[in-house]
Design a protein that fits this description.
single chain, Leucine-rich repeat, LRR (right-handed beta-alpha superhelix), 8-stranded parallel sheet, 8 strands, 35% strand, globular
Amino acid sequence: MRDNTLPILSFHLKSRHRHLYDFVYPAITRGVENLIIDLCHSNALPSSIVLSTKTLSVLKLKRITLNEGFPTVVDLPSLKVLHLENVTFKYIAYLHKLLSGCPILQELEISDLRVQILTMMPPPLGIAISNLVRAYISSDRIIGLEWLHNVEHLHIQLVSISH
């Protein structure tokens, strides 16, 4: 019902709904800068639209699965803040692609990160997040320290997951 010509600068979606495209796409097409998505039950994210957004500067994902349908190219040229909480990636390559697609990333928070298929370890050359000012990592050694060079404030909490 809102005027389609007005921008949406900040959009926060907390949902159990599986058909998120109808909610997320209008925010993306209106130049959203701050996007927070909490899917409550680790539903799949329509990542093809979210991970190729030129205007996005803050992206916070919570309780989300990034699996089939992950875009071939991640292009987030304005993204400065990325928070991943309780996020599951199908392949480690998806995480590599996400981080590589954020060239000016300054703040990274990761907690409860899971990867279903740990292939391509160690990470391919070229994954380095060189503009980071602040990083908070709480994971099971999925994030390589070599990715975080030049970070000014680094907090790492190693979490051991028993299977």
